[in-house]
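Reminder: ligand-aware prediction takes two inputs, not one.
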Amino acid sequence: MLADSLFILAIESSCDETSAAVVGDGKVLSNEIATQAVHAQYGGVVPELASRAHMQNMVPVVDAALLRAGQSMGMPAGEKLPLDRLKAIAFTQAPGLIGALLVGAQFAKSLALALNLPLIGVHHMQAHVLANLIPEHQPRFPFLCLTVSGGHTQIILARSPLDLEVLGETIDDAAGEAFDKSAKLLGLPYPGGPLVDQYAQWGDPQAFVFAEPQVPGLDFSFSGLKTSILYFLQKQEPGFIAQHLPDLCASIQHRIVNILLQKLKKAARQTGVKQICLAGGVSANSGLRQGFEALGKKEGWQTFLPDFQYCTDNAAMIAMTAHYKYLAKDFVGLDAQPSARAVW
Ligand code: KG4
Ligand code: ZN
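Here is what comes back for the chain with zinc ion:
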């Protein structure tokens, strides 16, 4: 990489992952993530604890990202990418937990001020979509992206890195929430999504049939599914869940995956776009991955799935988005405010 390469340091702190990453000329050189284990005992993310953990993790994570970037650049062992090589500092501006976002924003602003560098505010959901531009095998524009995480469920039409349109989104719970809340009803610990996936491997997806939402257009709804599972379980004898756990998990997963893929198919047919991507933490789900690939084959899509480390919350996707925003000179001032809201 040349002396005048475009190095950007990015910070992600929207929820319970403290992450820092460096990109150089649009290539990811490091992506360090500290996951906060403290929330598991409470059955969900506790905002105040998340903010405190971000404060504790921030400096070591940024340090590790600069060190790893140095290694990627072939610098001598133990040497970090020098701060004076950076051209900009980026941070997740929205959406997320406001206290958590503030920690990252404040850190990024302080660094930008101290180093006299431009500051780039990144939309977290845009970044999830652009995570698909990290691997070498990339979609061509325009592409569709189904972003499924613990906080969001969206179908996005990406015409260029900075021109994204939301075609559909959830009107209540996110897909990850649907997994986690269903898991909770089955007595599984938080976050239950990965456990539902594991038990589902041994179960029959047709064993039980849960409600299918009737939502017009390309929007999603998952709250009815949760209620349908709750009412179904309330009618059963004690011991039913333990006896049928794999079948319950497989049936719940089948329903959620089906809801997601039906809408994705509809969006692809409506737009005529055949470059189709997945993003967000729920794209780790094996049922969704298999269903996505199978549907893609049937519909003649070219399908794209980023590495798992770029699907869950990470700063590499923030850095990648910042790369394109830098090229478009899309900077924010030191007075930029983070926002909890998706529209900011
Ligand atoms: O993108 P992410 O890491 O964080 C948010 O921005 O929300 O997504 C986390 C969500 C959680 O709801 C978690 O249960 C779900 O992704 N998840 C899964 C799987 N792995 C993670 N859900 C189903 N199956 C999985 N294998
Ligand atoms: Zn996310």
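The pocket of zinc ion (ligand 2) is lined by residues 124, 128, 149, 313 (CB under 6 Å). The two ends are 35 Å apart (CA to CA). We will return to this case in the review session.
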